[in-house]
Amino acid sequence: MITIALPKGRIAEETLMIFRKIFKTPFLFEDRKLVMSEGGFKFLMVRNQDIPVYIVNGAADIGVVGLDVLEEHKPDVLRLLDLKIGKCRVCVGIKESDNLDYSAPELRVATKMPNISRNYFSTKATALKIIKLYGSIELAPIVGLSNAIVDVVETGTTMKQNGLKVAETIMHSSAHLIANKNSFIIKKDEILSLYDKIKKEIED
Ligand code: PRP
């Protein structure tokens, strides 16, 4: 049995679609349930940011997670495959009327991705203050909590609706298949067999 951690929401649904096509099995979560066992797999419904925690600790053998989360937390996992779903960008956002001013005495950046942000701005000649938030990042510049945000942009609607614009793109992201290092040794054949099927399915 392989345990697979999926991030709640659209990526989970798109990943399950891939499994449905491969195994011709419904793979449906019952309402509000967080675990589903079917077809020799156990699926876990996990918060996006928590996926690496389940994999690193061996509570799941493999998982699906955004490259942005991998780059932010640098978990000790194997990166197996880019699933090419859940495509988005990590961007610097500012108010529509503003310019990103690196000559200002201090840049205050609100984000749930402090490591990516710090790393990015370290190459710019500016004093940086990171304001760590857990959600609704787009609110920060509106109320003067920050001058800028670093956040995930998919369609761009959230920024636009809140009077913000993309100033710079830091990285592109998509959902990746990752594995626990021990699981990959102990369950190598099972995981590789699944890897081959998924790879074939997404390339078709
Ligand atoms: C992300 C991100 C933005 C929004 C961007 O949040 O933080 O708010 O999506 O999408 P858009 O460009 O299509 O408008 P998400 O809904 O993933 O919630 P989270 O804060 O829990 O990660």
Topology:
Elements: E1 2-7, H1 10-23, E2 35-38, E3 41-46, H2 51-56, E4 62-66, H3 67-73, E5 78-82, E6 88-95, E7 107-111, H4 114-121, E8 128-132, H5 139-142, E9 148-153, H6 157-161, E10 164-173, E11 175-179, H7 181-186, H8 188-203
Parallel strand pairs: 1-3, 1-4, 7-8, 7-9
Antiparallel strand pairs: 2-3, 4-11, 5-11, 6-9, 6-10
Helix pairs in contact: 1-8
Task: Provide a brief overview of the structure.
The protein is an alpha/beta fold and 204 residues long. It folds into two domains: 2-86 and 174-203, D-Maltodextrin-Binding Protein, domain 2 (3-Layer(aba) Sandwich), CATH 3.40.190; 88-173, D-Maltodextrin-Binding Protein, domain 2 (3-Layer(aba) Sandwich), CATH 3.40.190. 32% of the residues lie in helices and 32% in strands.
Structure description:
With 204 residues, the protein is α/β, with parallel strands linked by helices. It has helices at 10-23, 51-56, 67-73, 114-121, 139-142, 157-161, 181-186, 188-203; strands at residues 2-7, 35-38, 41-46, 62-66, 78-82, 88-95, 107-111, 128-132, 148-153, 164-173, 175-179. The protein folds into two domains: 2-86 and 174-203, D-Maltodextrin-Binding Protein, domain 2; 88-173, 3-Layer(aba) Sandwich (D-Maltodextrin-Binding Protein, domain 2), CATH 3.40.190. 32% of the residues lie in helices and 32% in strands. Strand 7, helix 4 (114-121) and strand 8 form a beta-alpha-beta unit. Helix 1 packs across helix 8 (188-203). The longest helix has 16 residues, at 188-203. The protein is elongated, with a radius of gyration of 19 Å. The two termini are 26 Å apart. The model has no long low-confidence stretch (mean pLDDT 96). The chain binds 1-O-pyrophosphono-5-O-phosphono-alpha-D-ribofuranose.
